[in-house]
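Good morning,

Attaching, inline, the backbone tokens for the sequence recovery test we're adding to the shared suite. The designed sequence is right after.
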């Protein structure tokens, strides 16, 4: 069974930074693309960033230049470094592997 566990969320002021982690188990991690999504209250879940098994990276326009996705296959972990945070980044952040479900999410709140 696949398990995805997100961590690293918190409350920060606009312009601040957070580093999110997602630890995966129950899959051959290095063979899977990984992605970060987020969902704000009353909003649909939104794709944020992806990294393939070949380390090709894409970002949503809204976070491009501010967020960095990376992976460590030795640790079966994907990361999201979030800089220059804005109030509109406030959401629950989830990681995902295709057809392998979602984690429990980690809350990110950006507010002054």
């Amino acid at each position: 069974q696949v398990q995805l566990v997100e961590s690293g969320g918190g409350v920060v002021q606009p312009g601040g930074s957070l580093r999110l982690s997602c630890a995966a188990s129950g899959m051959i991690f290095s063979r899977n693309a990984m992605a970060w999504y987020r969902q704000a209250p009353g909003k649909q879940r939104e794709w944020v960033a992806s990294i393939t098994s070949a380390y090709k990276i894409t970002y949503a326009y809204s976070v491009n230049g501010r967020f960095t996705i990376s992976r460590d296959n030795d640790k079966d972990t994907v990361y999201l470094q979030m800089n220059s945070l804005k109030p509109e980044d406030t959401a629950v952040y989830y990681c995902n592997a295709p057809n392998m479900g979602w984690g429990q999410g980690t809350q990110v709140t950006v507010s002054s």
